[in-house]
Amino acid sequence: MAAMKSSTSATxxxxxxxxxxxAVLLGAASAIFAGPVLxxxxxxxxxxxxxxxxxxxxxxxxVTEFPGQSTDARLTSLTQEFNxxxxxxxxxxxxxxxxSRSFYPLKSPIAPADVAFDQWGNPPVxxxxxxxxxxxxxxxxxxxxxxxFDVKNPGSPSVLAKRYVASxxxxxxxxxxxxxxxxxxxxxxxxxxxxxxxxxxxxxxRTGHMEIYVMDYDGFNQHPITSYGSLSLTPRWSPDNNKxxxxxxxxxxxxxxxxxxxxxxxxxxxxxxxxxxxxxWSPDGKKIAFCSSLSGDPEIYVSNADGSGLQxxxxxxxxxxxxxxxxxxxxxxxFVSDRSGSPQIYIMNADGSNLRxxxxxxxxASExxWSPDGQFMAFEWRVSETGTFDAYLxxxxxxxxxxxxxxxxxxxxxxxxxxGRHLVFESTRAGSRQIWMMLANGTNPKQLTTDGENWxxxxxx
Length: 461
Hints:
single chain, mainly beta, 35% strand
């Protein structure tokens, strides 16, 4: 098992797989096919729009360090945490250019009357938006007073005025910073909610066993969900974020388990014979698609969320695996199949009809992930036998393909943030398999995990 990798590419060596083989192949990516020269049109990642709206430039923003209103050691520490998290959240958002604090006036405002509009709106700061405020301890609580001003509009500058009350601890302080950051992103980013309070599920081998972990979107608060001492793989959030479906080998046979994030117990789901792997929720949470070999070959099935009403969707003497629903419509399912001789991405209607191949450039294309608006598919692709796996996007309507990662180890399993502005993925660019995030145009990569090996991320909704 030490050779296990993150992708399911090697599942396609044979359409007749033993249980042990698929257990390995679910985690091991290996090259098996050198495809023809790329025929799909490709474009540069810079042409993928990441911003407040289609074509809109980033917003220039200044974010002051909120000062604590006493010398209490607890307040000093929590204020530093708040300031750090707020800056990072806004820097990660993908819609702002944060002005370096080296350009700020010597005196930062803590109340609306303190704002000197000319100092903030003119050079060297030249900012459009200004976030500022203060922290204090009142009645044994952390109280954060926060403002967002449009300094280019001094006649009516106030965009947000918030007061947050939290416990005097790190978790609560970070949540306040995340909440204010989300409010700013929603106010200025076209109404889309921010991602600062989202979670990422992933597989980690830091204990020596492959277990399911969950962390905050920025890598904080990593903790295990499973502790089976076995293989737990391919976690997938339900649309309401209350459940995680994943593949488990705890019984010796690969099966689908569903974990309640509310009760912290497993929910009922049938133990179908054969191999049962790579679950995926429908957008309404009422159905689950997955790969099963109960008919002999690994095929795509769909059932109700409790496992009832099982329906087979694919009929091919090949490996069909890794289904994912169109989150916009719920009417289509993408999946991976080697029916053409190598792993490729296909799309079909949710009832199995209207099957068509998505990627025509050959090589090995797998791990499809639909963007929240249904326009793009992120995927991993090894274009040639001598190449490596990288993350790509395809515009489904036009067929235009964009390469997102270049010359930085293996970059696999890209999946979307709920705002459609970010991707989380696994990469060996730092030497070992770790979880990274980046903007959807491939810029601003940031490493989220460092402990052990970590892969197969999935972003909450």
